[in-house]
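User: Show me sequence and structure for the first protein, then do the same for the second.

Assistant: Starting with the first protein.
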Amino acid sequence: ALDVASLKPWFARFGDQMPRLINMYGITETTVHVTYRPITLADTHNPASPIGEAIADLSWYVLDADFNTVAQGCSGELHIGHAGLARGY
């Protein structure tokens, strides 16, 4: 996971508008990327690693052990779906 706090020196030197830093999360089953998230200086104050929103041909869900959607902020397993997912997964 991206350690966003480690980017503080970058933001001190360049700011958070140009050039932009992008965090992209991905897994093998999707042939690299699943999500896209521009990172800002404000993100360096949050201990979590923001992964952003699904890219155009994918969707994602956080599910519990019974495959039910969990509430925001709760733990679960990330499940990927849609056209960008490789067959057999």
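Switching to the second protein now.
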Amino acid sequence: MRRVAVIGGGIAGLATAWHLARARAGAVVVLEREPLLATHSSARNAAIFQLLEELPGMLALALRTRAHLDALVGRGDAGWLKRTGELFVAPAEAELAELAALARDAGLGHARLERADVVKRVPALAAGSARYGLLVHEAGVIDVHAVAARLADAARAAGAR
């Protein structure tokens, strides 16, 4: 039997190990030098989960990612995501119209905000030109360790070590 080593027990390494084990690519082993998984790159980024994006394909990718993580880790604040929202700001309401339409068409919970609500959420914007906001409720911060733990469990269940 072929042996496959995956270097690193972060999100990318654990996801790779899980998929290799599920595909029966060989005897899969994850090599991680730290006692805790997802210690380096996976744990040292902003872990922001942004749903709304104007670039073609990015919204669809974010929605698929959300569905996969909901299935793997669980939905809601007890799962993989702390819902803090995603705030877009602009000096003119019309500048947010396209994003609002994308959010509506994707079925994303969102709200339009006036300047007072924008400043209440982000006081540092009081001195700027932001007069309007669009808040997407389902975005937030990823619980990297919860995702890593579930990926490790799934990889083990598929036969990886």
